[in-house]
Write a structure and sequence with these properties.
- The chain is built from four helices and six strands; from the N terminus they run βαβββαβαβα.
- It is an alpha/beta fold and 133 residues long.
- The protein has one domain: Leucine Aminopeptidase, subunit E, domain 1 (3-Layer(aba) Sandwich).
């Protein structure tokens, strides 16, 4: 299994699409969402999907208000389908949902177990996935 750089860093020079935890109304005011908006072209009011060099993946309904886990599962599934249908793109997946939204990292990592090879996940998630084998 592919294991990326253990630091899992993204910079503005990175060619990969930055996947960040957003809120459904697209207010990108803090954390990875702020970086995505200010540095990578995430569009204000776009809470899901590809804009600039980013992909907004909703983890909250509004700033600081986590969505139900079942809804997160739906959004992750939609992202995975998008990534599968765009093999020409490479995605840098941040630890979506594990910061402001407060989801358990093991639970979120499990949602990405079928992510395609063009998705670079946080190194800890690969470790968790290897434990599940």
């Amino acid at each position: 299994m592919f294991v990326p750089d253990p630091l899992h860093n993204h910079t503005v020079l990175d060619e990969r699409i930055f996947v960040f935890g957003s809120n459904e109304i697209g207010i990108h005011g803090g954390g990875a969402a702020w970086y995505a908006h200010k540095k990578l072209g995430a569009v204000w009011t776009v809470g899901e999907g590809l804009t600039g060099k980013t992909y907004a993946l909703p983890t909250c309904s509004a700033p600081g208000k986590p969505i139900p886990f079942s809804l997160l599962e739906l959004y992750v599934g939609r992202f995975i389908l998008f990534a599968e249908s765009h093999p020409e793109l490479r995605f840098f997946v941040s630890a979506v949902g594990c910061g402001i939204a407060g989801f358990n990292e093991t639970d979120v990592a499990y949602l990405f177990k079928h992510a395609p090879e063009n998705c670079d996940l946080p190194p800890k998630w690969y470790q968790l996935m290897n434990d599940w084998l």
